[in-house]
Amino acid sequence: MAEKIESVNPTRMELLKLKTKVKLAEKGHNLLKEKRDALIMEFFEIVEEAKGARKNAENKLKEAYRALTIAQATMGSLKVAEASLSVKPSTSLEIKSRNIMGIRVPVLDIQMEDRNLLQRGYSIRDTSAQLDEAAHLFEEALRLIAVQAEVEMTIRLLVEEIEKTKRRVNALENIVLPQLDATVKYIKMRLDEMERENFFKLKRIKALME
Amino acid sequence: MKISVIGDHSTVTGFRLAGVNEGFEVEDSKEALQIIRESMKDKDSGLIIITEKLYGKIAEEVQRLTEKRVSPMIVAIPDSKGFFEERIDPIRDLVRKAVGIEIKY
User: Fold this and answer.
1) Which of A65, A112, A155 shows the shortest C-beta gap to B14?
2) Which residue in B1, B43, B40 sits closest to B20, CA to CA?
């Protein structure tokens, strides 16, 4: 049994106030519960997405590594490293945000110019076609990794929000509402008691007067 | 915003070919952590790609660093030698936190 709120006056006014409070708390509780359920549904959808994103990125990466290894084998890894250092940075990233049920989640917008082999920046005279292939695959992998990062971040933010909502629901359900109920009950009892007392007084006075 | 890569020689070389802004070749996790710390101060740093092998040992620390912020995002990827044996799936942990049960997939 929950404790009643301390220092509450057992008056009718107080009772009315408490009753509106209870109503409000119940309404809030229901709304939060709905929010929690909706968030969890959203969460599972995104988890599904995340699995796919991770797999895609990893598969592409595997291909890219293989191509790189072949390039290193044909050109020598020193030459490959040298070529990689002369590549101009050409990616830019923009983080925008999207709204899922009041939570702002990031959207990664990765901008990469589609470069042909001349625009990458290394000389094509002493590099091989395998290097171009590897570079191309790594570009694609990078795009997929950005998707993976976005989805994983979204999941993290969703989880935080779910936890917060859950805690609020539980607080209302297990602490606030029982306390309010207990207080309402206490005031009702006191009021009833006072009424009985008054009734008895009246009877008593009437008996004395006769 | 910038994309950085932290990893071994092949990984960094590969991503340099793809045109990332910064590549750091590091040997151990401590160096990687140092670089991540530096990047956190940089407002322009948007995405950090790190190999799982390096990330595995510093995962907790990095998570603590990035807990309350959106950027830079940190993604762990397998390196050229394949998957890290004790790979950590960040999602599974989160699923358990959110719904209270562990879900296999």
Assistant:
1) A65
2) B1
A contacts of B80 (beta carbons < 8 Å): 65, 68-69
CB contacts of A90 in chain B (<8 Å) are 19
**What is the per-residue pLDDT across B57-96, written as a single tens digit (0 to 9) for each?**
888 888 888 777 777 888 888 887 766 555 566 677 777 7
In a domain? residue B70: yes
Q: Which of B63, B53, B64 is nearest to B29 (CA)?
A: B53
Could you tell me if the ipTM is greater than 0.95? no
Nearest CA to B44 out of A89, A151, A81 is that of A89
Provide the number of structural domains found in chain B.
1
For chain B, what is the mean pLDDT?
Answer: 81
Name the residue ranges covered by the structural domains of chain A: 12-205
Fold annotation for A12-205: Helix Hairpins (1.10.287)
The answer to whether residue B50 sits within a structural domain is: yes
Which residues 12-71 of A have a C-beta within 8 angstroms of B? 40, 43, 47, 50-51, 54, 57-58, 61-62, 64-65, 68-69
Say yes or no: B80 contacts chain A, CB-CB below 8 A: yes
Per-residue pLDDT reduced to its tens digit, B25-39: 988 888 889 998 888
Q: For residue B104, is it within any domain?
A: no
* Residues of chain A found within 8 Å of residue B25, distances taken between Cβ atoms: none
